[in-house]
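cron nightly-structures :: item 1 of 1
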Amino acid sequence: MKDKFISLVEYINRVKSSNKELMVYCEAGKNPCIGDFVDAFKEQDLDMELKDFISMTFTAKNLFSTDIISARIIKTSKDFTYRDTNSPSLNYVNRYS
């Protein structure tokens, strides 16, 4: 099972900065870790690494391959409406039918 978190991320490219949502998935019952954020960036074809742990700032490993210079996690909240399709609780069998 996995939990879904929605993060607000400030992307800084060579010209401007913009705020976008990022979907982060992690193990059920746990908060997202640095590796979960790196995996979420990889799903968007961004090869990022952690630059500053305190401000949660990530930088691109290869600045020549992408327009995005850095990304900063502003806030993260859990999506309580998300249900994992591989969850055993969804394979519910009604005993009374």
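cron nightly-structures :: done
DSSP finds one helix and five strands in the chain.
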